[in-house]
């Protein structure tokens, strides 16, 4: 009897997808004016004859997603609900299950947490926004319809241009100069989540309590929660890049007290151990070498870009 193809977990710059076939994707850097707000754009395309389940791991950015095709959110008990044409969500502390089937194309804008708050008034742990139903205003609703039509026609340049045009116009209206909370958050990203709140507060000449309050107000998520997500995403990106990385070394490099601490945190956020994740990464690399992307830590190549 022929065995079914093995599941592949691959990274989508901070997310792994459980999938049984190849899915073209690429990453694009936003315009310079948007780089303090938008980490990158992701282009994802798949064509599956039958519905397939995806498991998105927690990430340190919010996702503005516009899609064309069949995609469903999986709720309690595995009940599927159609995904709106465009949504804003993310910054969750647990994996998020999705279901897709047939030809599907999606354009993601990865927003830093403060950008989701400034541009769309969304912050953790708000529920996902349905941007196709007017949650982002009439201009975004119109842009979403045009972007989805461009995706259906596989016109990626037009889709990206429309989304970036809306983001640039919105940023000109609502984006604000970085306050101490955002500056501390940028420092967290550059430290792979290891900077301590007390040290950040001292750098900014604030008390830790004042910084924590301003951080939550400006960034939309607590400093400790964001630091957890940054460290977790850095850990699984590095394991994806090099599944042979010794876990004790990884724990030391990312500031965990020991390997057991890394394992507990990885399991709490990702639902599996770093060892199991590394094994899935080796399988992914063997079956889909093109899915590999460079990692980021210390003097290694940095991708995706860090906030400016």
The succession of helices and strands, N to C, reads EEEEEEEEHEHHHHHHHHH
Into how many domains do the coordinates divide? 3
Per DSSP, the total helix count is: 10
Annotated CATH architecture of the largest domain: Sandwich
Helix fraction, binned, reads 40-55%
Separation of the first and last Cα atoms? 55 Å
Class of the largest domain, according to the CATH hierarchy?
Mainly Beta
Q: What gross morphology would you assign?
A: globular
Q: How many distinct beta strands?
A: 9
Instruction: Report the portion of residues in β strands.
Output: 15-25%
Question: CATH superfamily assignment of the largest domain?
Answer: Jelly Rolls
Structural class: alpha+beta
Main beta-sheet strand count, sense and barrel state: 7 strands, antiparallel
Rg on CA atoms, Å: 19 Å
Q: On the 0-100 scale, what is the average pLDDT?
A: 84
* Poorly predicted parts: 1-24, 292-302
CATH topology of the largest domain: Jelly Rolls
Pfam family, one: HTH_18
Organism: Deinococcus gobiensis (strain DSM 21396 / JCM 16679 / CGMCC 1.7299 / I-0)
Keywords: DNA-binding, Transcription, Transcription regulation
Domain HTH araC/xylS-type: 196-280
